[in-house]
Amino acid sequence: TSAMYNLETFHSFLKSPNCKTILALVGAGLSASSGLSTFRGSGGLWKKYNAIDLATPDAFLDDPGLVWQFYAYRRHRALIASPNPGHYALSALSTSTEINFLTITQNVDGLSQRSNHEPSKLLEFHGSLFGLRCTNFSCSYQEKNNYDDPLCDALEVDKFQDLDQLPYVEEKDLPHCPACQEGLLRPAVVWFGESLPLQMIDKADEFIVRNTVDLILVIGTSRVVWPAASYVDIVRNQGGKVAIFNTESDEYDDDCWEFIGDSAETLPQALE
Ligand code: BJW
Predict the structure, then answer these.
(1) Which of 66, 90, 143, 245 is the residue whose CA sits 20 to 30 A from 253?
(2) CA of 225 to the centre of ligand 1 (A)
(3) Residue 124, Cβ neighbours under 10 Å: how many?
(4) What pLDDT digit, counting tens, does each position of 90-110 carry?
(5) Is 108 left (phi over 0), alpha (psi -120 to 50) or beta?
(6) Whole-angstrom Cα distance, residue 39 to residue 49?
(7) How far, in Å, from the CA of 151 to the mean position of ligand 1?
(8) Peptide bond between residue 150 and the one before it cis (omega within 30 degrees of 0)
(9) Domain coordinates of the chain in residue numbers?
(10) pLDDT tens digits for range 12-24
(11) Top-level CATH class of 37-80+127-189?
(12) Complex ipTM over 0.90
């Protein structure tokens, strides 16, 4: 990273008339200091299972009980967690009247919402842990804000909290659709290989095309999952600046501000 990129130059760019439109791209690292695990790296394991392997349609077909235990555990953890100063710093930007702002969060934990982020400026790109939908193709049942914990007896977190060996949960004991009475419910999140809701992509594209983004804040994300990661290059190609907030340095990217450390600390500092 060149001498041009330091906290001082970041602050003066942020306050300059050249910085009118800001896009925040958020990943699991933003919620790390709220106590929630990331997907990749040291925090990326749940019991002996790899989080990435469980977030797939195949895993759910193969063993819906196991995948539901993973999501029930994460629902519980998210509900007892609180937003951290990083969430609040973004929330403050979202209510500013001076700038055009949008947060694209890949997180499904609901912590940005709970930090009072302006809802119209927040896209939950990969869905929400607190959304449910029916897996029966002929049924369109969905629930948006279901905070029941546990969702059902078999998914009571105490039953698999400290176990090396998880109890096997049969499909009949998992949450089923109250509308069609037969479909298994699933979390309304976007798994690998699944398409993001089209209107989500549309809204993101609309923001980028309408405004021309001056600055993208890339916060706590490994930038490997598409299409979310693609916005960094899209903004750069528009002539926008990039600021990365991560505990690890990206050796391959030196045309950006890089704030190394816990984003719960670095983000409020940079945005103050
Ligand atoms: C800290 C910190 C602290 C730690 N402070 N920092 C084009 C090219 C290549 C591949 C594809 C492509 N198009 C599609 C694909 C395939 C696939 C993909 O991207 N694969 C790549 C992995 C190669 N993409 C998809 O399948 C997407 N669908 C799609 O594109 O559909 C198109 C389609 C069209 C037609 C037919 C079919 C499909 C969907 C992707 C959905 C991703 N879903 C998940 C699960 C969501 C539900 C859940 O939460 O369980 O989303 S996977 C997982 O990864 C989750 C996350 O949101 C996502 C991103 O992870 P994130 O947030 O970056 O976390 P980590 O753990 O990776 O990184 C944490 C970072 O924080 C690290 O950098 C740490 O250093 C840092 N950190 N502590 C600051 N305190």
Answers:
(1) 90
(2) 3
(3) 23
(4) 999 999 999 999 999 999 999
(5) alpha
(6) 11
(7) 26
(8) yes
(9) 1-35+83-126+197-272, 37-80+127-189
(10) 999 999 999 999 9
(11) alpha beta
(12) yes
Cα separation, 22 vs 182, whole angstroms: 45
Tokens of 174: 């998992």
Q: For ligand 1, pick from 73, 192, 230 the residue to mutate: most ligand atoms within 8 Å of CB.
A: 192
Could you tell me if 82 and 109 are in contact, meaning their C-beta atoms sit under 8 angstroms apart? Answer: no
**What is the structure's pLDDT at 2?**
65
Please tell me the CATH code under which domain 1-35+83-126+197-272 is placed: 3.40.50.1220
Give 139-164 pLDDT, tens digit per residue: 999 999 999 999 999 999 888 766 56
Annotated binding site: 134, 139, 177, 180
Ligand 1 binding pocket (C-beta < 6 A) is 27-29, 32-33, 38-41, 44, 55, 106, 108, 126, 189-196, 220-222, 224-227, 245-248, 262-263
Span from the CA of 222 to the centroid of ligand 1 (angstroms): 8
Ramachandran category for residue 193: left, alpha or beta (phi over 0 → left; psi -120 to 50 → alpha) = left
**Per DSSP, what are the bridge partners of residue 187?**
132
- Give burial (CB, 10 Å; 0-12/13-18/19+) of 47: middle
SS (H, E, C) 208-235: HHHHCCCEEEEECCCCCCCCCCHHHHHH
pTM, two decimals, is 0.96
DSSP letter for each residue of 154-203? GG-GGGTSS-SSPPP--GGGS-B-TTTSSSBEEEEE--TTSPPPHHHHHH
Other C-beta atoms within 10 Å of 222: how many? 18
